[in-house]
Q: What sequence folds into this?
C-alpha cells in the first residue's frame, strides 16, 4: 500500500477514535465462513467453493477492509485455503474456525462418522450438540492442533450457527479463544430454532447454556458471542407466526428483498449505525461460500462499497471478530444493556421498533400506524441448563430458547397477534386500545432507553427500560391498563398469578417476574386476555431479576 494511503487511513482511524470516546461505536464484522464441499448440489464443486472465497478475498482487498474467514476442518486441511488466506488477503484479516463438523474432522478425532455425506447439516451429526462431552473435547483438540500446524498458532475466533456451552467453555479454558458468533434468532430454519435470546450485538453466555446470557461473572463463559446475519429489526420477528417455519430477512447478500436490495441495505445501515443503541451498535456482514459468488455478488457489490465509505468517513469500525471480542471484554465485565432502533419503515407501513437487551431480559416495542404494543419480553437465567450440556442431541433438529413473558410470534395466529397493549376505559365503561403519534426514542445515560409516546386520548405514555426493570408511566387522570392477549390455543407458560408476582415454567424450569408498582389481575376486558397490569398513581414497574 502506498505511504499516502496509509497516512489517510491512520488519520481516519485517529478521527474515529476521538469520536468513539464520546459516543457508542458502531461495529461491523465481515465474517465469511468456508466449507470444502457442498453435497446439496452437484454443480457446486470444490473448485466453485474455492473460487467464491477467492472473489471475496479480492473484493475486500480492493476496498481495503479487514475480515474474518472461518474454516471448517475439511477446508482447513485443503492447502489451497492456506495459500489464499495467508498471501492474498488484506492486511489485518484473520482466520479462525467454523464449527460445523465434517467426516475428516470426526475421523481425525478417532470417532465414527454417522453422516449421510462428508458434510451433513443435520444437528445430530454436523454440530457439536450431536456428540457427547468427551467426543466434543476430542473434536476441539484435533481441530486446534491441526490449525496450529497449518497457521502456526491456535485460532482466537470460533463461530457456528450454534456452539454448545460445554464446547465453548472448553475452547476458552484450554485454548483461550477470544470471541465467538452464532445465528440470529430464527424458528425452524434449516431445522435450527434459536428463540428469545439476546437480540443482536453480543453477550456472555452461561457456563451451562450457550444461548442464555449469564447474570454473573462467575456463571459466565468470558467469551462474547456476537449475533450474526443482520436480522431485520421490524419484519424478521413475525415473518412467521405460531411457530411455523420462518423465512429470512437479513443482511445476507443472497436475499433479493433484503441483503441484495439497495433500498433495504441503506435503510438497515441507517438503523444500525445512526439510531439509538446504548453501549454499541453492531452487525455482521459476509456469507458462506456454499451460496457461490454468482449468488452473492450483487448483494456484496452493494454492501462492501457502502461499508468502505462509512469506514473511511469514520462513522463505523470494520474489524475482525477477535478485535471486537477483545474490545468487548475490555469494556464490559458482564453483558451490557444495548438496543437496536428502527424508527423509519422501508416498506412504508409506518412501523417502528425498539429492541432492548440486558443480561436480565430482552424486550421489543412495536408501533404500527397509530397503535403500539410490547411485542416481546423474554427473561434470562444462567441457571437454566441447556438440553445439550451433558448429553448429545439425537434428532436432526436443534432448539435453544429462553424464558417467555410475552411472545408475539409463538403465541399468535394471523388472526390474533399476541402482545401487551395499552387499553383505555371510555366514558361508557367499555375499553379501547390506545392510539397515538410517533414515539420519541433516546438514550438515557449509558444503560437506559427512554421512550415517550404521545397518545390521542390525551397525555403521554413514558417507558423507561433499564437493566432489570421496565417502568411504564401514563396519565393519572385517565383509567388505563396494560393487557396481554394471545391466540386462543397458545401454549402459555404461566402457572400462577398473584397481585404482585407472576410465576411460570418453561421446559421444566420455573421463573417469575414481579410487579413492584401497580397490580396484576386476570380479569381483563378482552376475551383473549391472559393478565392485566393496573397502574398505581399512573405507574407500573416490572422487575425481571432472577431470585
A:
Amino acid at each position: 500500500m502506498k505511504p499516502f494511503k496509509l497516512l489517510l487511513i491512520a488519520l481516519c482511524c485517529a478521527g474515529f477514535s476521538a469520536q468513539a470516546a464520546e459516543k457508542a461505536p458502531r461495529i461491523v464484522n465481515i465474517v465469511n465462513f468456508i466449507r470444502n464441499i457442498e453435497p446439496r448440489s452437484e454443480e457446486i464443486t470444490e473448485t466453485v467453493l474455492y473460487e467464491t472465497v477467492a472473489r471475496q478475498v479480492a473484493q475486500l482487498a480492493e476496498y481495503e477492509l479487514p475480515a474474518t474467514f472461518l474454516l471448517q476442518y475439511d477446508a482447513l486441511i485443503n492447502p489451497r485455503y492456506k495459500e489464499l488466506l495467508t498471501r492474498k488477503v488484506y492486511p489485518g484479516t484473520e482466520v479462525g474456525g467454523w464449527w460445523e463438523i465434517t467426516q475428516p474432522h470426526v475421523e481425525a478425532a478417532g470417532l465414527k462418522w454417522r453422516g449421510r455425506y462428508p458434510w451433513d447439516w443435520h444437528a445430530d451429526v454436523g454440530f457439536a450438540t450431536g456428540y457427547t462431552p468427551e467426543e466434543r473435547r476430542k473434536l476441539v483438540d484435533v481441530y486446534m492442533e491441526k490449525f496450529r500446524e497449518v497457521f502456526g498458532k491456535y485460532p482466537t475466533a470460533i463461530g457456528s450457527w450454534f456452539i454448545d456451552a460445554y464446547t465453548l467453555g472448553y475452547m476458552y479454558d484450554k485454548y483461550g479463544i477470544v470471541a465467538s458468533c452464532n445465528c440470529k434468532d430464527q424458528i425452524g430454519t434449516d431445522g435450527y430454532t434459536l428463540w428469545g435470546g439476546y437480540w443482536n450485538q453480543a453477550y456472555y453466555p452461561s457456563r451451562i447454556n450457550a444461548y442464555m446470557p449469564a447474570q454473573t461473572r462467575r456463571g459466565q463463559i468470558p467469551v462474547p458471542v456476537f449475533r450474526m446475519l443482520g436480522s431485520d429489526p421490524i419484519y424478521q420477528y413475525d415473518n412467521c407466526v405460531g411457530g411455523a417455519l420462518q423465512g429470512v430477512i437479513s443482511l445476507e447478500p443472497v436475499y433479493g428483498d433484503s441483503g441484495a436490495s439497495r433500498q433495504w441495505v441503506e435503510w438497515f445501515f441507517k438503523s444500525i449505525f445512526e439510531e439509538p443503541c446504548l453501549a454499541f451498535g453492531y452487525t455482521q456482514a459476509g456469507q458462506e461460500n456454499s451460496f457461490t459468488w454468482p449468488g452473492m455478488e450483487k448483494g456484496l457489490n452493494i454492501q462492501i462499497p457502502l461499508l468502505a465509505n462509512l469506514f473511511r468517513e469514520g462513522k463505523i469500525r470494520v474489524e475482525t471478530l477477535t478485535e471486537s471480542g477483545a474490545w468487548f471484554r475490555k469494556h464490559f465485565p458482564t453483558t451490557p444493556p444495548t438496543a437496536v432502533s428502527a424508527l423509519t419503515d422501508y416498506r412504508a407501513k409506518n412501523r417502528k421498533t425498539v429492541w432492548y437487551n440486558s443480561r436480565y431480559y430482552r424486550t421489543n416495542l412495536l408501533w404500527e400506524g397509530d397503535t403500539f404494543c410490547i411485542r416481546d419480553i423474554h427473561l434470562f437465567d444462567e441457571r437454566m441448563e441447556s438440553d445439550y450440556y451433558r448429553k448429545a442431541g439425537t434428532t436432526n433438529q436443534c432448539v435453544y430458547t429462553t424464558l417467555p413473558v410475552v411472545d408475539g410470534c409463538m403465541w399468535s395466529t394471523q388472526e390474533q397477534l399476541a402482545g401487551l397493549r395499552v387499553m383505555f376505559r371510555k366514558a361508557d365503561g367499555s375499553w379501547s386500545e390506545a392510539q397515538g403519534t410517533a414515539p420519541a426514542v433516546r438514550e438515557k445515560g449509558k444503560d437506559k432507553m427512554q421512550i415517550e409516546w404521545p397518545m390521542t386520548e390525551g397525555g403521554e405514555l413514558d417507558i423507561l427500560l433499564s437493566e432489570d426493570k421496565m417502568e411504564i408511566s401514563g396519565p393519572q387522570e385517565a383509567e388505563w391498563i396494560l393487557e396481554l392477549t394471545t391466540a386462543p390455543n397458545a401454549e402459555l407458560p404461566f402457572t400462577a398469578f398473584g397481585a404482585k408476582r407472576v410465576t411460570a415454567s418453561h421446559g421444566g424450569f420455573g421463573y417469575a417476574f414481579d410487579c413492584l408498582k401497580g397490580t396484576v389481575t386476570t380479569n381483563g376486558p378482552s376475551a383473549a386476555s391472559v393478565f392485566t397490569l393496573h397502574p398505581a398513581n399512573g405507574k407500573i414497574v416490572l422487575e425481571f431479576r432472577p431470585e
